[in-house]
């Protein structure tokens, strides 16, 4: 079902799942569901990383960005500015929040070693990617063709966050059109799922080990997202509290390979 076909009830259930307490990292670690996941084969050539919001890049694939950037061409396409993360805030209304989040992302990508000329911003409306999916698809496809990139990395299209899912669908369409491989990284899945969740294609999950240096750079980059990891004076809910960040501080990163999903 596309975002345009998603019912209000579906959206409410998804929002409730993301807003709930969530699955602690302790449970994931105790079950070690990832122990036997293979490492995917990384094709030669440029890599295009797609994100729905500033910080998705670093949460889902920041360690790999740090590892890949010194030796190959890595491009990042951010579809929205994330201006809707603090609704109702007077301190950070959407235009100010968009500027702040763009700055945070620039700082994070500097730390991870992504060249400034390899950063692309589309500026589509936050929370409304589903209605702009065709535009996102066109941009992703054009970049894949221009770069000659054999690999597209994007949010998982089953993540239960409407923007993440729209970004994943757009990347899937673009990759299919260009013949690129597609790796999808989960963000909120670690929060709403559990190790026995049948909604997750566990057989298609792959593990990407991180070096100690890459983990340190990812951790430093995560700290750049000040608007997301700390409360605002007039918006006390933290978007990415420590319990959520713990899922993204592992010694590896996870992708779901499209051809196996």
TrEMBL record:
Task: Extract the ranges annotated as region (Disordered).
Answer: 1-24
Its keywords, alphabetically, are: Zinc
Judging by the UniProt lineage, the source's domain of life is: Bacteria
What SUPFAM superfamilies does the annotation carry?
Answer: LmbE-like
Gene3D superfamilies named among the record's database cross-references: LmbE-like (3.40.50.10320)
Q: Which is one Pfam family of this protein?
A: PIG-L
PANTHER family, alphabetized: BLR3841 PROTEIN, N-ACETYLGLUCOSAMINYL-PHOSPHATIDYLINOSITOL DE-N-ACETYLASE-RELATED
**What is the name of this protein?**
PIG-L family deacetylase
> Taxonomy-wise, where does this protein's organism fall, top ranks first?
Bacteria, Bacillati, Actinomycetota, Actinomycetes, Kitasatosporales
